[in-house]
């Protein structure tokens, strides 16, 4: 059976309550990450594979353990090409370099302004380059979220269509090749899901706040972990410079108990299916409604959302466009709520081609129009908890119990973090010791080899010296013989010359006498 490791804090079949989530972050600070991770699991989950979560650890010292236990490592990422992710990106680069198994990145993107200055470059360019090179040594191609990220990698020297391809966000392919978005007819009684983040545009936040004055059946769905802490435990307050954003329990959303935070994708899916309309500036806050058929509109304010909204034809408006729109009914008249349906099949096929380029088995191998998956049956048999109630709507005794529980969990969470860091340091020390021992052994072997080589050279030098001395002795003997022969030859030459001269003299005297 093939064993696959996926970058994620939890598997889709794990059941975590609000208390569990309060104790330990299993989402990577943003529960929107669960969406694309769930899609990867569902697409690859089959009878002949066993899939595990890596706990969101990028520790390079785990390489040996991963090599020993897994056949494949899948790393789905969001906007990981950003400044504050650099340490983690470096860790992944080192980890991937140490791995001996295939590593496939099924989605990654650039975080930048709406109009990114790609020619100017970014502080993390070198980190991104090293990461991409490391991944390409372990797989055929990287999947990027949109054309802006594609253009960025091209600026770094990589080749589109060879080293990487645009695949969008895998969350859009969670339930297959087709999207069916319902019609919407908003009334005062319609149920609405709104979403935003602490860095959303003030224009977006003001629009949402005006909207809920007319539509009372609303729910605010935050995604950051610290907002879950605020909802569940009452604090601490979160940071945001945006006027009107809910940063404390004093805000209308919390006072009215209209806040939902989901600890699993099935519970999130079930809730959004029953909402009439979704709107806001969170990507996955509106992608999730899209894939379950709920009409929605996104507010796009940065490059990350811009490239995904463009690739997937997500129903959206820019912040500049939103400034001139007074209400949601005017907004609905300006957009096509079903635009994503029109590009889904093309994008899905491209995504499957990407998986096959990297030799990944998947559930759509025999039928790309398949609608059910092995994971579905497992999920349907599990009772996932719904969102916890905000602490503001609890009665006095339940509220005190919640405070007591969270206080104890807070200490346990602190202890957990401490143990985690201690264990990580110990792992690093063990790795250093092992590396040092290995290097010392190699050094000793090199010294022994050099000594043996030196001894061999010394013996060869001694033999050569002897040969040279023998050659010198032979040369000296030869020189003596040559000198002797020269002397002998000189004497013989004189005698021959005298003899010839005498003969010539005799001949001359004879001729004269005649």
Automatic annotation (TrEMBL):
Residues 440-481 form a coiled coil. Residues 38-299 form the Polysaccharide pyruvyl transferase domain. GO terms for molecular function: transferase activity. This is Polysaccharide pyruvyl transferase WcaK-like protein. InterPro entries: Polysacch_pyruvyl_Trfase. It comes from Listeria rocourtiae. Keywords: Coiled coil, Transferase.
